[in-house]
Amino acid sequence: MQEIELKLQVSARLRATVQAEVAQGSGSVRERLRAAYYDTEDRRLARAGLALRLRQEGRGWVQTLKGAGDHAMVRLEHEVPLARAPRGAAPVLDLSRHDGTPAGVRLASVLGEAGAAGLKELYRTDILRTRRRLRVRGGMVELAFDAGEIRAGRRSWPVCELEIELVSGSPAAVIDVARRWVRRHGLWLDVRTKAERGDRLARGVETGEPVKAAPLALGSGATVESAWRAMLGNCLAQALPNASEVAGGSARAEHLHQLRVGLRRLRSGLRFLEGWLDPVLEPGVAESVSRLFSSLGDARDADVQAALMPELLAAGAPPLPPLRGGRGVDAVELLRETDTTLLWLDLLAWLVKPPAAGSPDAAPARLIKPLAARRLKRWHAQVAEAAGRFDSLADEDRHRLRKRVKRLRYSIEFAGALFPSRRVERYLQRLRPAQESLGHFNDVVVAQAGWRERADDDPRAWFAVGWLAARREAVLGECRAALAPLLLADVPKFWK
Given Cys at both, which of 210, 293, 344, 482 links 258, Cβ 3.0 to 4.6 Å? Predict the structure, then answer.
């Protein structure tokens, strides 16, 4: 079966308030849940997105296998209630309990012939859960406030979160309830599971790896609407894990970068489909995506300047004045803001929205391939025209070219499976270096402007300004060389 739920983080100061509100009304239950999670020494289950546990619920036990689903709200789940064990004893793990289920098939594939032989307990959870069911328009959900900890050896991770799980009805009911709790208490979305956090504890690491974009393969019969759903799900699969990491306060600069890439890809997808499926997103939601992207860009600019500091010092720079951080943008607070979480919920709502084909008033489905071919052809022509006069472009026009190159690349990666794969890859081999070089040039321009601003009140910053002026000329040469292959007659025009 599938588990459909959302997980919202609760600040420590609101713990008592949220717990009390969940406990209100008849039917609320408080129970202690103690679970042991199993994996192989080389983490085969975690790497495959699986979690296997034995959990004590009161005097009863449940064996559960979970696996990643189609998007952030969905997970595969198979639970098997077990007979009561003698007091103080735990049941034996038995993988055959999951035979024949989708999650069980995935488990067997991951473990192979070794089966349960290589499994061992790696971490535990001890949770006090307060839960009650709530009937709402569109279905029934279960609210579960969890407080406790995840522990692996001497390392622990506190838990204070609200889970909203669908019991029956439409997945939209989960989103509607989540919106109310987010507005009321300022909770923020977190797609990291307890199993993911426990796996990190077992490995002794504080933060996960930044999530990059995964390949997207549209089928030959993809319609505009099915393509949009696939694009949106693909972009959120990149953005949400990185956003959760940033909001959690343990992210690296690369998490912020990959979050911005995910948002940039989403904006590119919106432009790619413009005019074919209107409105793709309600205007307010699309504007919110743009605002979040821009705000995170301010924080990213500070990271770019900081990344250049070691090179500046190695080049003989004097002790430089501190950088001004991203116009006061705090990425952690920004990702915890109510408006940001409501934006994620609005985007997820599109993924669980019933397809338009089910409506009697729906327009006929349109295949995306012929539309995509015409748009990619036009966008390539725009990039080639600007690349041909690169030397005469002002910096703002070079920045506009960079954005067009990114938009073209991401749109090709969305729709590339519709065209001959070798020709698509040959084209991307020419486009990617152009995007990379233009990105380096933009970083230099941004950093130079930042240090020039610092030089107004601290002359030491002039060293950085001069050093970046020389770097600017070198990177301009790299851009010319990277753009040149896009102007050649033999550029593989796969969209024909």
Answer: 210
